TrEMBL record:
The keyword Methyltransferase does not apply. It comes from the Bacteria. The keyword Lipid metabolism does not apply. PANTHER family: ARAC-FAMILY TRANSCRIPTIONAL REGULATOR, HTH-TYPE TRANSCRIPTIONAL REGULATOR RV1931C. This is Putative intracellular protease/amidase. One of its GO terms (biological process) is proteolysis.
């Protein structure tokens, strides 16, 4: 197992399907050959309930997080990103710290809106649920928006809620765990439903 950890932020109404593909591939290494420890981190101790009704007990609280130099931060959507944006500032501050230190950050759905409000998308290529969705935040990075399923720009990966498999594939590519051929096979299986790609995924 790599020394790198995947720090998965967990909070009530976490959009669990958005990070399901990524967390499974990181933890098991079933298609990369390299398992990665997945650590769930919450702002407060005690279990959280995901949008799908699953109960998640975090590994540790945010105040006890000691991130390593190569650790990945994963931020998923949740109701508060749009309903109460101020509630996400603790996570966008952490994302800012990660990016400033050259650590990768992967954000999907509402978390991209949080990053937009924090100014973290102003000078980076990115995507989200829709161009209009991010524009409503009033951020200044609209010219860097890309109409793609998932986008990587340096240490930042972004995607919309309709693209969890793309989010996983692009993030694994950014981490050096999955090459381009393997990513195409992965999307062929999990997006296109074409079993002919499975051999390329397991080769």
């Amino acid at each position: 197992m790599l020394s790198m950890k995947a720090i998965l932020a967990v909070y009530d109404t976490l959009a669990d399907w958005e990070v399901g593909y990524l967390s499974v591939e990181l933890r098991t290494g079933r298609f990369t050959g390299t398992p990665v420890e997945v650590v769930t981190v919450a702002e407060h101790p005690g279990p959280v309930t995901t949008m799908g009704g699953l109960t998640v007990t975090p590994t540790l609280t945010l105040e006890r997080l000691d991130a390593g130099p190569d650790d990945l931060l994963v931020l998923a959507g949740a109701g508060f990103w749009d309903r109460d944006p101020a509630a996400g500032t603790v996570w966008t501050a952490l994302a800012a710290d990660f990016l400033a230190a050259g650590r990768p950050v992967a954000a999907i759905c509402g978390a991209t809106a949080g990053l937009a409000r924090a100014g973290l998308l102003d000078e980076r290529d990115h995507t989200s649920a829709a161009r209009e969705y991010l524009a409503a935040t009033g951020y200044r990075g609209t010219d860097r928006y890309r109409d793609e399923r998932a986008v990587v720009d340096g240490d930042l990966v972004t995607a919309g809620p309709q693209s969890p498999a793309h989010f996983a594939a692009v993030t694994l590519g950014r981490l050096g765990l999955m090459n381009a051929d393997r990513r195409r096979a992965y999307l062929g299986v999990f997006v296109d439903g074409d079993a002919r790609h499975y051999a390329g995924l397991t080769a």
